[in-house]
Amino acid sequence: MRDKIYSIWEGGKAMKAYVKFMDGLPRIVKIIFALPILSFSWGFYRIAKSASKKNTIGVILAIILFFFSGFILWIIDLITIIVKGKILWID
Predict the structure, then answer these.
(1) What are the pLDDT digits (tens) for 8-54?
(2) What integer pLDDT is reported at residue 16 of this predicted model?
(3) Rounded distance, CA 35 to CA 13, Å?
(4) Domain count, the chain
(5) Residue 52 within any structural domain of the chain
(6) Would 10 be classed as within a structural domain?
(7) DSSP 86
(8) Residue 63: which pLDDT band, with cuts at 50, 70 and 90?
(9) Is the four-CA dihedral 14, 25, 47, 33 of positive or negative sign?
(10) CA–CA distance, 51 with 32 (Å, rounded to integer)
(11) Is 58 part of any domain?
């Protein structure tokens, strides 16, 4: 069952390609994506990153954060992108 779920999430290599795409963006574009209106893209990033690494806890946590913490998480994402150039995540 677990492998079926991850094969759906990966959609072939789509999840890994999305993670690679987001990681390769210039810092200014990452900052723009961290703004409140576009911050859902980092939610998808978290789901994709955990799914591509087959991390069940990470996928569940990413889905919960995607729906319930959009009001505060964008600030944390913005700060970590400015300081480190990437978002803070468990993977």
Answers:
(1) 555 557 888 888 999 999 999 999 999 888 888 898 999 989 988 88
(2) 84
(3) 27
(4) 1
(5) yes
(6) yes
(7) S
(8) very high
(9) negative
(10) 24
(11) yes
Rg (CA), the chain: 13
Short-list 50, 25, 49, CA closest to 38: 25
Q: How far apart are CA 90 and CA 50, in angstroms?
A: 8
pLDDT in tens, 71-90: 788 899 999 999 999 988 88
* Direct distance between the N- and C-terminal alpha carbons of the chain, in angstroms, rounded to an integer: 22
Q: Which tokens hold the place of 68?
A: 């319930």
51 found inside a domain: yes
What distances in angstroms separate CA 76 from CA 3, 13, 42, one per listed residue? 32, 28, 11
Q: Residue 52 sits in which domain range?
A: 2-84
Helix (H) or strand (E) holding 64: helix 56-68
